[in-house]
Design a protein that fits this description.
The complex is a heterodimer.
Chain A lengths: L31 H15 L2 H4 L5 E6 L2 E10 L5 E2 L2 E2 H14 L3 E13 L4 H18 L2 E10 L7 E11 L15 E4 L5 H9 L17 H10 L3 E5 L5 H13 L2 E5 L7 H10 L13 E4 L4 H10 L7 E7 L6 E4 L5 E3 L13
Parallel strand pairs in A: 5-6, 10-13
Antiparallel strand pairs in A: 1-2, 2-7, 3-4, 5-7, 8-11, 8-12, 9-11, 10-12, 13-14
Helix pairs in contact in A: 3-4, 6-9
Chain B lengths: L9 H14 L4 E7 H9 L10 E8 L1 H4 L2 H11 L4 E5 L13 H6 L3 E4 L3 H10 L4 E8 L4 H14 L4 E8 L1 H10 L7 E5 H7 L4 H8 L3 E4 L3 H16 L5 E3 L11 H10 E8 L3 E10 L8 H5 L14 H5 L31 H9 L5
Parallel strand pairs in B: 1-2, 1-7, 3-4, 3-5, 5-6, 7-8, 8-9
Antiparallel strand pairs in B: 6-11, 10-11
Helix pairs in contact in B: 1-11, 2-15, 6-7, 7-12
The chains are: A alpha+beta, B alpha/beta.
Amino acid sequence: MKEESITIQGPVCPVPLGHNEKIVMGHGSGGKMSQDLIARMFLPPFDNEALRAGDDAGVVQPNLCTQLAISTDSHVVWPLFFAGGDIGRLAVCGTVNDVAMMGAIPRYLTAGFILEEGLDLGVLERVVTSMQKATAEANVQIIAGDTKVVQRGKADGLYINTSGVGVVTPGVEIGGALAQPGDVVILSGTLGDHGIAVLEARGELGFESGIQSDVAPLNHMIAAMLEASEHIHVLRDPTRGGLATSLNEIAQQSQVNILIHEASIPVHPSVAAACEMLGFDPLYVANEGKLIAIVGKESAEAALEAMQKDEYGKEAAIIGEVKSAPAGRVLLKTTLGSTRIVDVLAGEMLPRIC
Amino acid sequence: MKHLSEYRDAHLVHAIAAEIRKTVTRPWVLMEICGGQTHAIMRYGLDQLLPPEIELVHGPGCPVCVTSLELIDKSLAIASQPGVIFTSYGDMLRVPGSHRDLFSVRAAGGDVRVVYSPLDAIQIAQKNPDKQVVFFAIGFETTAPANAMSVLQAHSLGLENFSVLVSHVRVPPAMHAILSSPQNRVQGFLAAGHVCAVMGYWEYPPIAKKYAVPVVVTGFEPVDILQGILMTVRLLENGQVSVENAYKRTVTFEGNQPAQGVINQVFMECDRKWRGIGMIPASGWCLRPEYAAFDAEQRFQVNQIQPAESPICIAGQILQGLKKPDQCPAFGGECTPQNPLGATMVSSEGACAAYYRYRAGLQV
């Protein structure tokens, strides 16, 4: 080859792509693109105080003595059944958890079903039975519903939307903007179980991990935590976008810095192995039965103990602390003692090439 | 996790870092070739453990980043055609072409699918005999054997609806290009362990000799990378020019001979344009004439494409180790992973993405 004749071209680069024209999958990732879409498309026309708070559920006060937390969530998971759960359990738990994350006691749900022509009634029955079990476990009632059928090919079997209402216990004030420097960050268990279980059910792992989805209602755990500690400032379930994205949201809302310690973050070995092979980071993988609690230092141990007594919080651990600067950012102390940033997921999580 | 935790052991890492500090007496500029190594350095903050004398610059070893804009535009043109299922490694979907990316093509109705292996694309072709299935065969020497295998398999199955858009690049010509540039600052190389697992390191002694730079074959875990740095620094401090192997558990001098055989059976050397660097002679692989039937560029007649680069970002200088990502005026502002100006900000192995993800605005 003619090595000496190589001339280096000047700086080159493509024009930016904002994906401002059409919806792409990244808009539904729960990460930065979702946040941008909401800020651009939905916040301005519907603007109000509850929506602006940007929490898992909107909190409103219809009269002097009652505060309600209201949330809604659509479920489009595919496949409908996966190890540890199914779309029905997910639809109940997702909304129950969103309501409970405001420190509210979830009471009532609605359920809207979008069914694809040709769906096996036996499948629907399995999903509904699973929903019934989940509502019994969470102690909520489905009090209204809706059914629509669309032509074959216009939906992927079955979609479910659920909305939920809960009553906020008087005196309880929880929200993403309430984290304070000095607070302690607690995680209720291992990261990434749901995301990896769903990937496996899709046949995208190429091996069997034995991982079960963690989908579960967390309202009883939260009730016990509120009983044990008066200083719970933030609760959030790290679903799409994972722990990294949820912590960034909180850091932004509260204008604080969150420092987490890599060594203290629980990850199931099979999930860690699957992530290594696929090029995923467990910090960004979805969970459906985990919560982050940001708690005043004085009662962190009490909250942790209450979590560990619950069947869904046995592996709860303190994973970090809240600091003042740099505000709005999440930092991670690596197992080697160095520090790096943990950013939100940019768009769709993609496996890397090699 | 067994076989990983050992190579991330904090005590061992700190011990090697201490040994590097003891060994260094003056400044050295080292380049890690592979984007996977760049990410590990950033993810574990390994540069924070090094003495200030050692500067790591980041090499061109990110296949997504160096795939030419022209080929990306060709992929977009092919993927937009009706009756085509376009398959690719996930990383490529977000790489901007002149006007759009594969995500946009998918959103506009194109059938774009992420696969983990080109053999998955073969299966898709078998299941969809009425569609044309195209695989975007990008990558260095690491992905070449599997990509070559897919062509051989398609050939033996007599698949007429399968083709590959080949964009293979090779490391040694890129090292020549970097070292022969008058602006070169690199004094020692950490060679990419995965590339060497396939190719061995018999190609490196002539490079080391010609340019008087030591080359150390290096792995990807913290212990591996620091070990590679230590061995390179020792060679530099002793004035030795040689090629050594710090990744013996995976790499042999000869490399994986059957894999090299498959590559040579299907591919031959060709000139290749690198995004941000330009044309490097004999730096790529393309299909041999006997497999031309599987060449997507010929099948879809996409040779008339005129790519349009914009003049903002400095990806080219970054890929040659002349600049660091945070020296770019657009870094973290105009250019972010969700709004990338350059491929180096897109790929999970791109240097800019690594800086943004682990380091943006962080004073350490």
